[in-house]
Design goal:
With 189 residues, this protein is mainly β. It has no helices and 15 strands. It has strands at 11-15, 24-28, 36-37, 41-45, 48-51, 60-68, 74-77, 79-80, 92-97, 102-107, 121-122, 124-125, 139-140, 149-154, 167-171. Strands 2, 4, 5, 6, 7 and 9 form a 6-stranded antiparallel sheet that branches. The protein has a 5-stranded antiparallel sheet with strand order 1-10-15-14-11, with no helix packed on it. The termini are far apart.
């Protein structure tokens, strides 16, 4: 059966170390001008969460955001709407899956993946997400130059086959969230 071209971002699949997968609280600057959707890969700029580019060094995967709207309404959303202003221009709380031990499921959006893809790093396809459901439409290309998403296997499912638009498992070995032995970002911000 042929795979369907339907990328929906990066979804936590399991942890290399076991345990419960939880997002980490980070910051988004009030009025940050780029939309971010649940499942999008994000990076840091001056300590703030930003939408990652195709070859940006990731900090993790965006889960959602909490902020107080300018009218005083507490708001949780699965997506950050570009240029959202917060009450008093306070930082919004971004929730990001930043643990470098998390393995994510995502879809190849180009090329013809093969078993030989396992162990290689690929660039991200950074298609804008859905404003209807707040979900990412990001995936992974078959381009290895400047790749950031390490393919560690393919999803074993009757609805997935190794080939065009295959779903696979990825980690981010260049994750900015932790550089052992010091993990300064793991402290509460």
């Amino acid at each position: 059966m042929a795979n369907t071209d339907a990328p929906n971002g990066f979804t936590p699949a399991f942890s290399l170390y076991g345990g419960t997968i939880r997002p980490k609280k980070m910051r988004i600057a009030s009025a940050y001008g780029t939309a971010i959707y649940s499942g999008d890969v994000v990076t840091l700029s001056s300590g703030y969460v930003n939408q990652a580019g195709a070859t940006s060094t990731p900090v993790g995967v965006f889960y959602g955001v909490y902020y107080t709207a300018t009218d005083g309404t507490p708001t949780f959303s699965k997506s950050w709407t570009a240029s959202t202003a917060t009450l008093g221009s306070e930082d919004a709380e971004a929730y990001v899956y930043a643990d470098p031990g998390i393995v994510f499921e995502a879809q190849f959006t180009a090329g013809t993946p093969a078993v030989s893809f396992i162990g290689n790093k690929y660039t991200l396809s950074t298609t804008a997400g859905s404003s209807t459901n707040g979900r990412s439409k990001e995936g992974v290309t078959a381009t290895t130059s400047s790749g950031v998403a390490l393919c560690v296997g393919f999803v074993d499912s009757p609805s997935n086959s190794i080939g065009a638009y295959a779903r696979a498992y990825f980690t981010f070995p260049t994750n900015r969230a932790c550089s052992w032995p010091s993990c300064s970002l793991w402290t509460r911000v």
